Amino acid sequence: MIIPVLALLLVGCDKSDADGGKTAANKTDTKAKADAKADAKADAKADAKADVKADVKADPKAAVQINLDEQGRALRGFDPLAYRNDGKPVEGKPEHTFEWNGAKWQFSSEQNMTKFRESPEQWAPANGGYCTFGVVLGKKFDGDPNVWLLEDDGLYVFLNEEVKAKFLEDQAGNLGKVKANWPTIKDRAPAELDG
Q: What are the domain boundaries of the chain?
């Protein structure tokens, strides 16, 4: 009689050990599934960030069409709408940054950023923010956002005040050269135009 009771106890122990093993296995399996889910979520988030960056740089020519500073900003971070709205250059704020055409555009207000987002071609500087007189010469020089001109609903920037004065000596003729030259050089890197 002792042997059958002992046998039942042993079977019961084996069964509880087996259940305990299943419970441990279930816990391990549940943890593995949770880890896999968290990893998948992190991967999706990383992919989404990569897609946003890829969208910004999707067109390699876009990067040479816009004059960028070392931080990847157009107009050195100045608000492109301020020239028309405020009549002067105004620095943008990092919290009002919008990426378009391979560049980071900064704005002094959420309202200006929203307007730009709706119609970036209307507000972006002419010639990608490169020096306007450089374009007259078929070149791409840095444009200083503090040296500017509004003409024909376009924002034109210049290397410096001296270069702007030279441009203004024949403004109409030089604007004609800009309109003729920009389409032929816009997709070329500045270094390709030297020489």
A: 67-124, 125-195
